[in-house]
Amino acid sequence: MLELGHFVPAIHYNVALAACVRLKSTIRDFFMAHGHTALLSPTLPATTMPMDAVSAAGPDAKNPLTSAINFTWPANVFRLPALTIPCGFSGEGLPIGVQLLGRPFAEATLYRLARAYERNHDCASRPPLAAPAAASVPGNSGEYPAH
């Protein structure tokens, strides 16, 4: 992947950097102008998948985790603090998360928001249900993952 950087002309790289600086400034201004503390968004475009499906290519020959960057790239590109907290479980018992994006340098605020959410919801304290394979482990009722 790093080798692809050789094919990006320096002028294109500099234009992209300048655009990131302008967009970061716009995001900062948005937070300040509207008095927002954080933005809430999905962490992934779908529920979490079992670990054995993570490395399997989908019908379009793409790694399923590639789609995760659709929701998480703003934090990385614009250098915003972000964290994910559990907000529920799918019908299969897999965890679902939401992402909090904060103002620049407002990590402590995100921690406080996440803690307040976790105190009022049991998602963070409840382990996900086991995948079907874990239920076949002797002594495991299938309610919790085998260790």
List the helices and strands and how they pair.
Blueprint: H1 10-34, E1 38-42, H2 51-54, H3 69-77, E2 82-89, E3 95-102, H4 107-120, H5 132-135
Shape: flat
Rg measurement, Å: 19 Å
The proportion of strand residues reads 5-15%
Largest sheet: 3 strands, antiparallel
Low-confidence stretches: 131-147
Instruction: Write the element-wise H/E pattern from the N-terminal end onward.
Output: HEHHEEHH
**Counted beta strands:** 3
Structural class: alpha+beta
Q: In summary, what is this structure?
A:
The protein has five helices and three strands. It is of the alpha+beta class and 147 residues long.
What does this structure look like?
The chain is of the alpha+beta class and 147 residues long. It has a domain at 36-135. The chain has helices at 10-34, 51-54, 69-77, 107-120, 132-135, and strands at 38-42, 82-89, 95-102.
